[in-house]
């Protein structure tokens, strides 16, 4: 995050704090006026308590307006950084309509709007339409242009994964987490999946444990806790294995979310491995549910 954005967000939080303070002063002033000074004779002049309450209310209203103005400014700056059509391309990616997203993203690159986010989406779109050479070139360019941006290495990992270079993909995600350890939990989960596919079980389990420290979407949670439960069980940590199994069962609905992703990966070795893994998880869930009945 740039210094300017940090200052702007600090202003937003400061405005929010002052707004809360002003409203608190208003409430206290009203309470004092209504309950503590109610025996005071009526007067045409405002009491000090009411004057303080009105000052607090004005401060709160002013800070709310300032806060909304700063948030609007930040959103406007962020929108300007992305090329026209970026939002539409993002929606196409979410709907798995990768071929329709590519022209919009290529247009963004042609206009010089090569942000890490644009290059990440373009890499994903190329990879999921079989254009692996273009996907890799785009991922490499993201790292070249933004070597200190974690998103560049997440983009690079996506390119490597589509080419079945799982160890390189896992290493790219590890680099992303080194640059910014506060990555969302699913990034650690993806690193674990890739490490496991590459045969690096020890590093995969460490990544899964890091992922488990975050709130995970169910689609990631069910896979992470399946692997953790097996690892704890093999190590003889039965209490932790049972706890991980319970978390896996709680996220069982997440298996369904992988079905559309499986269709896009159907012809890849990663997709085949994922299909077998999901089948094993479904079987483990059935066994665990039967044991608990």
UniProtKB/TrEMBL annotation:
TPR repeats: 150-183
Cited InterPro entries: TPR-like_helical_dom_sf, TPR_rpt
TM regions (residue ranges): 7-32, 52-77
Record keywords, A-Z: Membrane, TPR repeat, Transmembrane, Transmembrane helix
Protein's recorded name: Uncharacterized protein
């Amino acid at each position: 995050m740039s210094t300017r954005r940090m200052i702007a967000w600090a202003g937003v939080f400061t405005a929010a704090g002052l707004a809360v303070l002003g409203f608190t002063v208003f409430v206290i002033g009203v309470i004092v006026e209504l309950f503590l000074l109610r025996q005071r004779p009526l007067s045409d002049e405002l009491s000090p308590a009411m004057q303080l309450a009105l000052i607090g209310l004005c401060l709160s209203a002013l800070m709310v307006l300032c806060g909304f103005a700063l948030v609007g400014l930040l959103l406007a700056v962020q929108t300007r950084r992305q090329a026209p059509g970026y939002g539409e391309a993002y929606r196409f990616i979410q709907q798995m309509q990768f071929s329709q997203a590519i022209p919009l993203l290529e247009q963004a690159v042609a206009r010089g709007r090569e942000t890490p986010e644009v290059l990440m989406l373009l890499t994903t779109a190329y990879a999921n339409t079989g254009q692996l050479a273009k996907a890799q070139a785009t991922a490499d360019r993201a790292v070249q242009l933004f070597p200190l941006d974690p998103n560049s290495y997440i983009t690079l990992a996506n390119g490597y994964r589509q080419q079945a270079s799982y160890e390189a993909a896992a290493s790219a995600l590890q680099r992303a987490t080194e640059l910014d350890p506060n990555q969302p939990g699913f990034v650690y989960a993806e690193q674990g999946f890739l490490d496991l596919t590459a045969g690096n079980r020890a590093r995969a389990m460490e990544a899964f444990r890091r992922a488990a420290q975050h709130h995970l979407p169910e689609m990631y949670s069910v896979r992470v806790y399946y692997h953790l439960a097996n690892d704890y069980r093999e190590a003889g940590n039965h209490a932790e294995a049972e706890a991980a199994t319970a978390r896996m069962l709680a996220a069982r609905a997440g298996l369904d979310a992988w079905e559309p992703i499986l269709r896009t990966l159907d012809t890849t070795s990663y997709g085949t491995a994922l299909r077998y893994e999901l089948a094993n998880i479904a079987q483990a869930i059935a066994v665990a549910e039967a044991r608990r009945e």
